Amino acid sequence: MTAPHTRHAILQALARVPDPEIPVVSITDMGMVRGVTVSDAGRVTVTFTPTFSGCPALHVIRESIEQAVRDLGVTDVEVRSTLTPPWTTDWIGDDARERLRQYGIAPPAPTGEGQLIQLDAEPARCPRCGSLNVRMTASFGPTLCKRMYVCDACREPFEGFKSV
Amino acid sequence: MTATQALTGAQTQALLLKLTVLADDEIILAHRCGEWTGHAPILEEDIALANIAQDELGHAGMYLTLAQSLGGSDPDHVAFWRGPDDYRNTRLVELPKGDWAFTMVRQFLYDTSEALWLEAATSSTYAPLAEIAAKAVREEKFHVQHTALWVERLALGTPESERRTQAALTELWPHAAQLFQPIQGEAELTAAGILPDLNAAHARWTDLVTRHLTQKCGLTLPDAPDTQPGRDTHTPHLAPLLEEMQSVAREHPDAEVW
């Protein structure tokens, strides 16, 4: 290692690491990367936060982060996880929301501090035709982060991101 | 990093036990949820219970990782290498999965207790626990929404679904109080602000579930027993559950890649 890598270069590399379950967005798009530090000695520390605590892809994400930094030629890498502040879908960037929508996943509605027992689901808009005339058909989807909907305007079923 | 801020030795031991107790309930209930995989009444519920089980295991993982940092064993070891005598889960979660009404009523009673406890635990003076609670409560919210709706749907559905839901409640209600049984040393941890006040959580829970079950769902609450045996007393259902759950780990103790 000659020159230590800049934070910027590392963040750029992490921005190319896809979310293992939704490959159209990266781990930085999702707001999972919470901090990157480079010590004078060239040691790189990346802090990330899990989206869901039981997400089966967590170890894949951890390894991908480490590999992406190593690919820059860094030998001393530490990947830490943090729970504070807890991950929220409000951290998903606008650009990533649009990519989710094009991929067929309704982006999450803004999170609100509502009551715990709230039987009405948050609003979702059909990612294909834009209608709000949609029905939730299952509150748990193929991954922990998604719910299933049907659009009553264009009749297409679609997935929607939960607001967390 | 907000590390272990000056827990006394006694506090550390009590917190270790509490984290194990919390994790044990999550692990055992997750296994019961998982038993519906491929058997739920509709495909969506198959997936829902698999999701819920995954979340509960995620919470157990966080508790046990914290316990490990306080001197506990490796989380996998805790889950897969203890027998029924060492598990400290409630009897509520170990009872066989029963019919769909039984599963939904149990899940509702458990989810609401977990959600309310977690909400209170976000104010813990012990930062690592407050962090876990803040994370888990966001996930638990979805379980509560889902199972509250199912209990309502079943209770107000057909005479048969109502009969089954009432039967489930009658059987499960006496067991639910055990969720609020303090562990040894809990009072001291509560006094130090490390753990939430269990009595307050119990009162909030009773109010919430009573309103939902009686007023909204028209069900009748049976009497609950005044006293409960401790968490070290199990039904005969736990041993076969663990035998199944731990069979792979015990058959391949050195496996590193699954």
The separation of the N and C termini of chain A measures: 41 Å
Assembly state? heterodimer
- The radius of gyration over CA of chain B amounts to 18 Å
Q: Tell me what portion of residues of chain B adopts beta-strand conformation.
A: under 5%
Derived from helix and strand composition plus strand pairing, the structural class of chain A reads: alpha/beta
Q: Biggest interface, which chains? A: A-B, 27 and 35 residues
Which range does the strand content of chain A fall in? 15-25%
Principal-axes geometry of chain B comes out as globular
Strands across the major sheet of chain A, in which order? 4-7-6-5
What is the count of DSSP helices of chain A, taking H or I runs of 4+ residues?
3
- Relative helix content of chain B: 55-70%
Number of strands of chain A: 7
Number of alpha- plus pi-helical segments of chain B: 10
Mean pLDDT metric of chain A:
90
The helix content of chain A is 10-25%
Mean pLDDT of chain B: 94
| Main β-sheet description of chain B | none
**Coarse morphology of chain A:** elongated
Main β sheet profile of chain A: 4 strands, mixed
Organism (chain B): Deinococcus aquiradiocola
Protein name (chain B): Phenylacetate-CoA oxygenase subunit PaaI
InterPro entries (chain B): Aromatic_CoA_ox/epox, Ferritin-like, Ferritin-like_SF, PaaA_PaaC, PaaC
Protein name (chain A): Phenylacetate-CoA oxygenase subunit PaaJ
Written account of the structure:
The complex is a heterodimer of chains A (about 160) and B (about 260). By secondary structure, chain A is an alpha/beta fold. Chain A is built from 3 helices and 7 strands. Chain A has helices at about 5-15, 60-70, 95-105, and strands spanning about 35-40, 45-50, 75-80, 105, 135-140, 145-150, 155-160. A 4-stranded mixed beta sheet of chain A has the order 4-7-6-5. Chain A is elongated. Chain A starts with 6 loop residues before the first helix and ends with a strand. The relative contact order of chain A is 0.15. The chains are: A alpha/beta (about 160), B mainly alpha (about 260). The interface of A and B includes residues 85, 137 and 164 of A.
